[in-house]
């Protein structure tokens, strides 16, 4: 049974295809370590958030495959393609001070050391060197700022602001 409607949900990935003939699904994982999505069960799928218990799962090449209880053939698995995998936010691990889930930073205003507003956080990108904040500059454009100890001067969630050591013309 899924948690109550008032619960805050977190999308961890989506069903991207079928694997084999036993009803296994391919999973596109949004978690930092791809197979970390397998640490959560049940998965709440689709607009009705139907709960599916994870029977087994593993890395398969560069991706993740999973077997869900009650999904026993290719056609049942095929019906799940494209559905987002959600869990209640309360199932996420507690963060240490100074740690943030990206989703908690979306929409925050970004100010540089001079107090100039550079924009609001629209999304994040993972790169090999460091993560990158994608800002909506409020003028129809985007600004990319590396997210690192050198550029991020602090997050004030109460004020809904992120302070960075970055100039608007960089």
UniProtKB/TrEMBL annotation:
Q: One GO cellular component term, please give it.
A: ribosome
Looking up InterPro entries in the UniProt record yields: PRC_barrel-like_sf (IPR011033), PRC_RimM (IPR056792), RimM (IPR011961), RimM_N (IPR002676), RimM_N_sf (IPR036976), Transl_B-barrel_sf (IPR009000)
Transmembrane as UniProt keyword: no
Can you give the residue ranges of the RimM N-terminal domain?
A: 12-90
Pfam families given in the database record: PRC_RimM, RimM
Supply one GO BP term: rRNA processing
* Coiled-coil annotated spans: none
The UniProt keywords, alphabetically, are: Chaperone, Cytoplasm, Ribosome biogenesis, rRNA processing
- Compartments reported by the entry: Cytoplasm
| Molecular-function GO terms, alphabetical | ribosome binding
Q: Which Gene3D superfamilies match?
A: PRC-barrel domain (2.30.30.240), RimM (2.40.30.60)
Locate the Ribosome maturation factor RimM PRC barrel domain: which residues? 102-170
Domain of life the protein comes from = Bacteria
The record describes the protein's role as: An accessory protein needed during the final step in the assembly of 30S ribosomal subunit, possibly for assembly of the head region. Essential for efficient processing of 16S rRNA. May be needed both before and after RbfA during the maturation of 16S rRNA. It has affinity for free ribosomal 30S subunits but not for 70S ribosomes.
Describe its partners and assembly state: Binds ribosomal protein uS19.
Free-text domain note:
The PRC barrel domain binds ribosomal protein uS19.
Similarity remark: Belongs to the RimM family.
PANTHER family xref list:
RIBOSOME MATURATION FACTOR RIMM
Q: Which HAMAP family would you find in this protein's record?
A: Ribosome_mat_RimM
Q: What is this protein called?
A: Ribosome maturation factor RimM
What gene, per UniProt, encodes this protein? rimM
